[in-house]
Structures are given as C-alpha cells and as structure tokens.
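This follows on from our talk about sequence and fold. I would like you to pick a protein and set down its sequence and fold. Go ahead and set the record down below:
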Amino acid sequence: MASPQTLSEAERRVVATWAADCAERVVALFEAEAPEDGRPRDAIARARAFARGELGAAEEIRRRFVAGRAAREVSSPAAVAAARAATQAAAVAHMGAHALGAAAYAAKAAGLAAPDRPQTVDDEIRWQLEHMSAEARSALRRLPPLGENSSGPLGSGLLSSGILASIIRAIQTDLARPDLWI
C-alpha cells in the first residue's frame, strides 16, 4: 500500500510545478557561491519537465538526490538550504510530500539570506501560498499533517523539527482553513 504522502502521479505532476517555483526563487543563493555548479538548477528543470509529463517518475526517483550532493559543496547556510529546496522539488516525482520540503527549504534559505529582516520567512510563505494553484492546493490538502505519518518526508526527520517544521505547519494550517482557496 502506498504512503498517503505519495499522492497520485497526476497530483505529483501538479505539485511539482509549485515546488519548482518555490526552489527557483532561492537557487541564486546557491549559484552565488557555486556559479559553475548547475545541479540545483538542473533539478528544478527536471521537476518542471516531470510536471509537464516529459520525464517519468521512475527515472526521476533514481536521480532525485543529485542536487542534494551539491549542498555538501557549499558553506553558507542559505546556499545549502537553496540546494536542498531544489533536491526536494526534484523528489516530488517520488513522493508528493517533498513539495512541502521544497517550500520549507526555500523559505529557510530566504530567511538565512536576510538575517536583518525577520519577516522574510513569513513573506516567503505568503508568496508560496499566493502562487499555489487551486489544483496544487487540493492535492497538498490530501497530505497527512506533519508528524502524523512516518512513511515519508513528513514523518520523523529533517522536515519535522526546527524552522522547517514551523514552515510546513504554517503552510498546512493555511491549507486547512475552509474559508480560503475555495
């Protein structure tokens, strides 16, 4: 039985676009430190190609960690988080819940890049929510709340603690509001 964090392939294709949009907003933070390393940007492009139906899930499942290795080769926390956002976007082909990981890492990267502006993370979350399609909202609403299902990225792990967990909870709280996104 598939994890409730997987989503259908059609739903994963829908949320992959949003995840790529989130990651793309911060990829320049990685590129500023490693301008010759195209792995994060390539991961974002692959997420978009998956969303368009140009790449299959099986192929992308095998390649989803390529951009993550780029995160080990930069030193600034913002660049690391930006590379991880791209990795999470590419991993949506495998499991839809990674879209929330892409958003969380992107918001974290934005916040780390602007330590003098404490509202940056909230501003990024607001942008993410405002730029989410109705179809993506519907699909992401089907995911279990963070920490309630251990069979995927929303279980125990990096996304379930600290700032990443706070960001995902904020997004899921907003998605659960019945008065919004109808």
Observations:
- Residues 9-24 form the longest helix (16 residues).
- The radius of gyration is 15 Å.
- DSSP finds ten helices and no strands in the chain.
- The chain has a mean pLDDT of 92.
